[in-house]
Each structure stands twice: as structure tokens, then as C-alpha cells.
Design goal:
single chain, alpha+beta, 5-stranded antiparallel β-sheet, 5-stranded mixed β-sheet, globular
Length: about 290
């Protein structure tokens, strides 16, 4: 009989284990809860799990099988990744690209985005016809959103992975005593061009994707033309580490993870911008 998964991870436990340290023969890491400001030490298997987040136990769990398959493949080639991108063959890059794509899409933030625009329409538009209003309200049903999100991940993850695979890959090596952080939304995008009318698109020439691999390594994935002259590996300084940590704090929904218990930067950022502590905060706003 097939084992069904009820409590489903929004961030891969396989991925989080790379940020762990050993404590009493268990792999554990620290997590900072942005809402409560509590710090706890936990095993990666026990954090970031939500009941029937993608699929119910009554369904054939196709997506759960896809996650499991690529988590296993990612784990098998992880040592090659941290040796350097030049050690990866095309099959390796395809596996890593799909793993990153799946992690990019499997978060609470992605699922929540399905309800953001309908909510804005209902809150701000006063002249919506009754039939259209009913359609908008129906689209906010939690079961409709769950199915739509599941189907979107299954349909789209390979397309997203192709974009990632075709871009320039640079391994950032942490030479400081401060570890890279990760979070419950670890695939972060950054653009140095500030434009409130334009988001940061995965395929944009200005877009830089940062994906921490472990406390010592992070992947930078960027435009191949813009970054053509960049080396395949660079060493980081403390400014680079703080920048990557800031990205994790900004992108995370509930939790920031680290192998160390020190989270002063998270506390400082929340103090300066309390909205960062809000769970399921909107990424879309009416201008």
C-alpha cells in the first residue's frame, strides 16, 4: 500500500540538512520565528510542514513523488556542486535547476499569490458586476487555490528550470566566520535596478538569483551576457554575507534558518520594518 504524506514540507528537509550541525547524534539547526521572535533548535524533518498543503491523502500524490525524486537526485550530486560549477555535467545542471525551480514554486508565498489579486479587486473596485464578483469570490476558495497551485507547479517547474539552467552559474564561497542563512523561501531574486512599477523577473537581464547551498556555499545565477566575464567561483566577504542574509529575511515568510543561534540582523530588520514579521504578507499591491 502506498504511503501517503499528510504533513507536507514547504522547504525540502533534504535541503535543510545541509545547514545542520550534529547535536546528540541528531542533525539540527536553529530557526528564528519572525512572528514570535523565538529561536528554537529543531530537526529539519520537523519544521516547515503544513497539512495537505499541495495534495490530500485521498489523491494520488504525484507532486510529492516529484519532490522526493529530485530531492534524492540533488542529495546524490551535492558534493559535486560545492566543488565548483565546472565539475557539473549537463545532466547535473538539469537536476539542480529542477530542484531549485521546485523549491522556488513550493512555498507559502507562491500559494498565497493566487489570492492576492482577487482580494485587491474585491477591496478596491466598487463597480464589479454581481456575476464577476461571484467568480472572484469563488476563486478564493481554499480548495480551488490548493488545486490551482499544485497544477501550476507540475506544469511550470520544468519551464522555470530551463531559464535557470541557461543562465550563468557562479559559486560563492564563504570565507568568513559568519554562515550563510536560509529560510522557508530560500530562492531569492534581486535586481540592482529600482523600479516600483516592475517586479524582479526570473529571466530579466537585471535579475540575480541567490540560492544558499550550505553555511559555506551559495549559488548566484545571473544573466549570461551581463555576467559573461565573471569567474565561475568567487570568495565572499562579510558584506556579501550580510547582503545574502538580508535577502533571506526579506523573502522568508515565517522562518529564517541558521547553524548558529545568532539572529541579530533579523531582529534589527524587523524593528526597522515591522511588516517583515507579518505572516503571509502581500507581495502585490495596488498602485
Amino acid at each position: 500500500m502506498e504511503n501517503k504524506v499528510k504533513r507536507q514540507h514547504i522547504v525540502s528537509a533534504t535541503y535543510l540538512r545541509k545547514f545542520c550541525f550534529s547535536d546528540k547524534d541528531k542533525d539540527v539547526l536553529y530557526n528564528f520565528n519572525k512572528q514570535t521572535k523565538e529561536v528554537k533548535c529543531t530537526q529539519p524533518e520537523k519544521i516547515g510542514k503544513i497539512n495537505e498543503f499541495y495534495e490530500t491523502i485521498k489523491e494520488e500524490q504525484i507532486l510529492e513523488k516529484v519532490f522526493s525524486d529530485f530531492e534524492r537526485k540533488y542529495n546524490e550530486i551535492f558534493d559535486k556542486i560545492i566543488r565548483g560549477v565546472n565539475f557539473l555535467n549537463q545532466e547535473d545542471k538539469e537536476i539542480i535547476s529542477k530542484f531549485i525551480s521546485l523549491q522556488f514554486l513550493r512555498t507559502e508565498s507562491t500559494k498565497n499569490s493566487w489570492s492576492e489579486i482577487p482580494k485587491i479587486l474585491l477591496e478596491t473596485e466598487k463597480n464589479i458586476g454581481p456575476n464577476f464578483k461571484k467568480q472572484i469570490e469563488d476563486s478564493l476558495d481554499s480548495e480551488i487555490i490548493r488545486k490551482r497551485n499544485r497544477d501550476f507547479i507540475l506544469i511550470s517547474f520544468e519551464q522555470f528550470s530551463e531559464i535557470i539552467n541557461e543562465r550563468k552559474w557562479i559559486l560563492i564561497i564563504n570565507k568568513t566566520n559568519k554562515p550563510f542563512w536560509t529560510s522557508d523561501n530560500p530562492v531569492t531574486l534581486y535586481s540592482p535596478i529600482k523600479d516600483k512599477f516592475r517586479g524582479v523577473g526570473l529571466a530579466s537581464p537585471e535579475s540575480e538569483l541567490y540560492f544558499p547551498l550550505s553555511p559555506k556555499y551559495c549559488l548566484l545565477i545571473c544573466d549570461p551576457n551581463k555576467c559573461k566575464s565573471f569567474p565561475s567561483a568567487v570568495e565572499s566577504d562579510e558584506d556579501n554575507i550580510e547582503f545574502e542574509r538580508c535577502l533571506q529575511v526579506n523573502y522568508s515568510n515565517r522562518f529564517v534558518f541558521s547553524k548558529e543561534k545568532e539572529f541579530t540582523l533579523v531582529e534589527k530588520m524587523i524593528e526597522e520594518n515591522p511588516e517583515l514579521s507579518h505572516i503571509n504578507r502581500a507581495s502585490v499591491r495596488r498602485i
